[in-house]
Amino acid sequence: MSSAKQHVPWWVKAAGAVAVVTALLLAALRLDLVPGFGDVFGEETHDRSGPVLLESLQDISRYDAASGNFQVVVDLEKDARLLPDALRGTRTLYVGAGTVDAYVDLGRLGAGDVTVDEERTTATLRLPRAALGTPALDPDRSYAVAKQRGLLDRLGDLFSDNPGSEQAVQRLAVRHIAQAAKESRLTARAEENTTRMLRGLLRSLGFRNVTVTYAG
After folding, report:
1. Distance between CA atoms of 143 and 127, rounded to whole angstroms?
2. R_g (Cα) of the chain, nearest Å
3. Which of 13, 70, 104, 175 gets the highest tally of CB atoms within 10 A of its CB?
4. Taking the chain, what is the end-to-end CA distance rounded to the nearest angstrom?
5. Closest to 106 (Cα-Cα) out of 46, 50, 148, 64
6. Quick check: 82 and 64 in contact, CB under 8 A?
7. How far is CA 180 from the centre of its chain?
8. How far apart are CA 191 and CA 147, in angstroms?
9. pLDDT tens-digit map of 181-216
10. Smallest Cα–Cα separation from 103: which of 56, 66, 136, 157?
11. DSSP bridge pairs for 98
């Protein structure tokens, strides 16, 4: 009894041939085996951002007297209960670099905070204590060193609008930098610089004796 040869539809053969050719082409492009094709499929960047809108204006009366540069290495790990790290969990090693400004708010001066003698040779100023601004991360100096994600987390990134988000480690980096700025001499340096600036300014106006104090 002879066996009948199974007939394969032509469109199946065509689809298979296209798949093979596509796979070979992609492999060649990845290995740069086909000269000139890399430029054809290369990426192009188009900036279609809208115009910048000015939302508000604010007068600034503070004197930025000092600025500190900080860097912190954040090691953030999140585990899931009853699940192994290979299945569910993330760990990110992130280098956060940013600056913190220290300033004296001259807009808080009252009528009795500045006194001048009759000869206009002696001036006494009582200023508010220097304060710290909000830490600002530098995107050019901040980067993720390593990322580890479980299988479920990697699958979730496929359906996420913001896969591999670094917001958590960035917030933690800002928190650590803010704490480091509080423990540094940044505010003291700002008060020293403010005192030096005001003494130089008033002495150029003819004052010989200038006293600057700070109150909480």
Report:
1. 39
2. 32
3. 104
4. 106
5. 64
6. no
7. 17
8. 42
9. 999 999 999 999 999 999 999 999 999 999 999 997
10. 66
11. 70, 137
Whether the pLDDT of residue 56 is over 70: the answer is yes
Query: Quick one: pLDDT at residue 11?
Result: 55
Query: In this predicted structure, what is the pLDDT of residue 75?
Result: 84
pTM for this model (two decimals): 0.65
Sheet strand arrangement including 122-128? 114-116, 122-128, 209-215
Tokens of 13: 């053969």
Q: Distance between CA 211 and CA 90 in Å, rounded? A: 56
Q: Which residues contact 175 (CB under 8 A, 6 or more apart)?
A: none
Q: Is 192 exposed, middle or buried (0-12, 13-18, 19+ CB in 10 A)?
A: middle
Q: How does the average pLDDT of the chain come out, rounded?
A: 78
What DSSP string runs through 61-94?
A: -EEEEEEEEEEEEEEEEEE-TTS-TTTSEEEEEE
DSSP state at residue 104: E
Per-residue pLDDT tens digits for 127-138: 999 999 999 999
- CB-based contact 113:70 (threshold 8 Å): no
pLDDT of residue 158: 42
173: number of Cβ within 10 Å: 25
Give every CB contact of residue 127 below 8 A, 6+ residues apart in sequence. Answer: 104, 106, 109, 113, 191, 194, 212, 213, 214, 215
Question: Quick one: tokens of 56?
Answer: 């508000």
